Automatic annotation (TrEMBL):
Gene expressing this chain: Cnig_chr_III.g11352
Name of this chain's protein: FACT complex subunit SSRP1
Coarse class of the protein's main subcellular location: nucleus
Entry function: Component of the FACT complex, a general chromatin factor that acts to reorganize nucleosomes. The FACT complex is involved in multiple processes that require DNA as a template such as mRNA elongation, DNA replication and DNA repair. During transcription elongation the FACT complex acts as a histone chaperone that both destabilizes and restores nucleosomal structure.
Location in or out of the cell: Nucleus; Chromosome
Amino acid sequence: MEFPGVYLEDVGLLALGTLKLTDKSLSFKSEKGGRSVTVSGDDIDGLKWQKLGNKPGLRVGVNDGNVHRFGGFKDADLERLQKFTDAHWSQPIEQSNLFIKGWSYGNAEVKGRNIEFSWEDKPIFEIPCTNVSNVTANKNEAVLEFHQNDNAQIALMEMRFHMPVDAETEEDVDKVEEFKKAVLAYAGLEAETEQPIVLLTDILCTTPRGRYDIKVYPTSIALHGKTYDYKIPIKSINRLFLVPHKDGRSVFFVLSLNPPIRQGQTRYSYLIMDFPKDEEQELELSLTDEQLEESNGALKRTMDGPIYKTVSVVFKAICNLKITEPGRFIGHSGTPAIQCTHRQNPGLLYPLEKGFLFIHKPAMYLRYEDVSSCHLARSDGGTVTRTVDFEVDMKSGGPIIFNTMEKEENNKLFDYLSKKNIKIRNPTRVDARAAESSDDEIDPYKAAVKAEGRKRDESDDDESTDEDYDLDKDLKDRKTKEKDSSEGSASEPDDEYDSGSEQDSSGTGESEPDSEEDVPSKKRKSEPKEKREKKEKKEKEGGKKGKKEKDPNAPKRAQSAYFHWFNANRLSLKEDGDSVADVAKKAGAKWKTLGAEDKKEWEAKAEKDKTRYETEMKEYRKSGGGASSKPSTSSKKSSGPSTSKAISKEYISDSDDSDEDEKPKKKEKKAAPKEESEDEEEESEASDASDSD
């Protein structure tokens, strides 16, 4: 029998999943990889039909005192469950109604492993003792602090119980202290004075970073560092990993924590210890004979060997969990680790039998059943072929990308994913020869080096000769070449611009260049440059004229209904680590899901804002606003100086220092380019005539 869409209460979070009932057990599996529960039918101690989250629920009691609460049922499911539990487990379901009158007084008792607050034998609420993180006993008051679940939107932080002194009871009995001891017995909060099972000194941790002294108790772990201290309940440890480092010199022992430990705003979902592979240490365990027998021979009073092996065995026995180690995957380096980066943070990726483990920063574990597809692609779109990008698409959430993976790991990872029947978006292996040829064609640096080498070899072949050098012959050849060049220059006609080369000897008195051939070449180069500068100047002026300046006195534009809603709900949509684009994307998706009734409020605000804008705009235009921003035709016409009356600054400054005879020269400078070219032609003709005379 299965019940999909049922949720489990897990430290303040109602985790959705599927509840499955069989002849021998009851099991719950979360949809998003959260907490999973399995209870044998023989261990069940009482079933109650009790509301959870305003919906019918099932309260399952266990022989060891724990309680599991499931909600999200329908009223019709009670008959089906009743028939099944009576037939297979011989457990009737008792209907239990909560006392919901809202009174703040009652009886607080520790029953089993739970704190029950009731009145007139009817429960008001119930809290597992394992959710308690700290207990403080004052004179007549007990203060409880609770663990936090990061996935829960609303969390219970603190609760205070006032316990007045009863005159009828004996004064020697302290109710607050008795209540505190009862809670501590099942909350996994041993006092520091108690002796731990084992003490690990100066252990290197990568997450949280630092060296810590670790005390292992039966129900909790205490970490003591130079700056911070942490307490981890054994209940919050849900997975154990033991993986080697790629260098082969150390081993990582990883504890997956839910809920994570916190330090300020930082959360650590994994505790990662780094042990040297060759280090051996002898550990003494403070366990009774009964505890040693319960471990089935896994634990001994004295344990020796490699430190990472002994520590992993101790945690395996205390947490009652299996240790996940690397499976059949072996990478190009000969180890199960792949060197890569995630968000520019270097780390190691381990493809395990049931998921991917990434160490570290941030450490994560991706189960294969939560992966929809994978993608292997060359980095930077194929321009750099030495590395590969590995993209993992999750069924819930966005893709997770691991960059700068060595290209030799491509085929290894491709074959492993194919055996695990994981969908790959580009199902092709990379041929080694094809990869080498593509490297030669694509890599620009390699191609440039090869081309330079070829040119150097060719030049060496052309210049290298085996003949002896003859000095006399070389001098004769040079003289012959000089003689031929002088005769050829005298017999050949002059070039097109050689007429100006004799102008230096005509006695004009002006310094001319060596030949007229240089003059037109300079003009040919300068003319397009001048045109280009004029064009750029016009474009700049046009751009400045086209750009409108914003008037600070102009009224603010009206906003749409969506933006009114978005500004009011921005903080509730934003989560830690979200960018502006992520928040906008969430807002757009949520706005689409809103109905017409939900949007009425914001549409009314938008209509009111629109009316406000139109009213303010009319007043703004009446007062003359907006006229200055429009370019006027008169300003355009009067922007330049007048040619008839206005005198340029250059002309005035020159006229002050020069005589009146120089005024015509200044006017000649303003002549058209065509007139300048005609004057130059006339001067060249005159110079040719003088040369012929």
